[in-house]
Write a structure and sequence with these properties.
elongated, about 35% strand, Nucleotidyltransferase, domain 5, alpha/beta, 6-stranded mixed β-sheet, 3 helices
Length: about 120
Amino acid sequence: MRDLQNNLKNLKLIKGYRLLAIDGSSFCISRNSNDEKTYIKNGEDSKGYNLIHLNALYDLENRIYVGALIQNGRESNEKQALIDIVKKSNVEGKVIVIGDRNYESYNVFENVREKTGTMLFD
């Protein structure tokens, strides 16, 4: 445990910035038509499927996951997921967040800035 704590104190930075990447992936899970939050049916003749969405924030230089959030398939919201992950994380100081357009919004920018004190988003 001590090694992990020391590694988190001595994080590698790029020109003074911590480089973080966020992305999401959807996964099919066991079919259960009674689960209204994850069950999706594409038509009358379709059996349907159940879906969850994983959002993960990763520190590229230090090769560690900073946080993750699983959402149900019907209500996945990548912008809100990033906000929730950052709020619960230990991320502080200068950061650069890399994410696709599903994560981009002024609300996300402001929440990351409030948590870290500064932020660049690409």
